[in-house]
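Progress narrative, work stream C.
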Amino acid sequence: MKQMSDYADESIVAESSGRAIPEHLKRRETDKYSLLAQGLFFGGLSYGAMVLYAYGILPLWGLIAANIMFYIRAYSRMHDLCHAFPTNTWAVRYLPTLFYANPVWGGTTAFITTHVDHHKYLGTDRDPWLRYYAGHPLQALAFNMIEPEWNLYNYIKLRGVSRKFAHNLAFDVLFQVVNLMVFQGAYVVHLVIQRTWHGIGIFLFNWYPHRLNWSADAPIGNFNREKEVQRLAAFIRPIFGKPLLEAAYYHNRHHIIGQVHVPSHKYALCSDDGEVTRFTKQWPVKSVQHLAMDPQHAA
């Protein structure tokens, strides 16, 4: 059997090897369909708001509010789905990002490939997501704003272009072209709103859990932010919901090996203790750690 990643859990190994999934893990199938349904629901609400805006039914402020309320909720479900389940089925390859104006170029295949390496190589120069939390915070914000294109570049650098990936990418391009032709300026406005909110949102989730403070020379680590974020809980929870609030609290738990497959609505059940990567034992680190092997040649 092909060697599985350190980040694959028991049920994923079972699925990949053709073995029966243990009874106590079968409930994860319910989680899979629930996450997919929720992602499509919230993404669909955002897309529906754009359609209403295009036909003059919803004002601009309503479109902005819909994206603030629904887009990050949809994106977080896509993130959880990618971590928790194989992405080789057509439904998980295409559907989770179906209603996003802000593209995930290459779909979930590209996203999870670079994101798993982010977990494996956190704090090192082999992390494809390093630019999102390293250096000056304004520089990191700029890279988060171009995250879809930067992620596409890193995926191709790591894996090249396979036929399956090309199909996903063609689907993404076709989706953008069709929507631009049908909805024209309204879709452009929707895309700009979603890209801006995406960049700001994931900057906070990339920088805040991985830097000790907001300075350019802040040490890199894996920090629990429960006490700090609780001050804003009354504002965050009604808008984004409990799963996203707890993801902000316990993002550090998500990085502990053996827990990365756990969806965000269960982060609170995970432990704060454990190994984060195979390369760094002591956290925080004062600067990015250099690993000799280039990411292009990573196993």
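Work stream C, second folded protein:
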Amino acid sequence: MHRVALATGAVLVLATGFAVRQSIVNLAHIGTPDGIVTQVAKTPLLASKRSLTSAPPGNDGSSVTFDVVNIDPAGAAVFAGQAPINSSVSVLANGHEVATATADETGAWAIVTNRKLAAGEYEFSLSARSPQHGVTAGQSVRMVIAPEAPQVASGATREAVAQPSVPAPITFVYNDTTFTAAGRQAADLLAKRLIEQRPAMASLSGHADERGSDLYNMELSRRRLSVVADYLRESGFVGKLELIPKGKSEPYTAIDRNALPREDVLQLDRRVELLGAH
């Protein structure tokens, strides 16, 4: 049976590679393999891949899986995952195709789409087509997208009721300044939001995992910040950037670190994330 996540905020995030800095509800430990999980949250919702309905992974790389489902009713949607190498991947919402991508030579795929999804209940599912495996059905997940914040009158003007939306962390390959597939999509999403919102300044923190010396990891986190800053500039962001390298001093804590494989946790530690923009 499917598991259901219900959120009342503007953004619903299910991920192992993406997460949010503010308070969360972690669904990784809730429910049984054939049970139904329902959780209400007033903040963005985080769950590991354990909360997805899984297609059994194949030893031949034939499985089609979600790593990230990030739905922002007011902005872009981000999907990412794994599929057979070079296959054509389709993301479906209630049986209707909403986005497509091609898996790369490692089987990774990622999509950022500005297609708006109306408030309501959705089942997101995957399928992939490849010469080696034909058509393969993949994971699915159910979620409820809450309505956007209403507009309220204020004198002669109208102001939106604030609904904070925190972009996903930008993750990196081990011991490198190269984006992961999900990290590149997160960097693109961050650039689009900053360009749209036009803050005077954005503060970013850079991080590394626990391996290596303090000095080396501090320099590595500084270099990762520089890569993200260059990406934002090349994308068109003109505001001031405050870059704060933190090395390995702040492991990622917006998840249950004991509930995920160690490599998944370390991947989240290798990141750059938005601290604030104003």
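The longest strand covers residues 134-145. No further action is required on this item.
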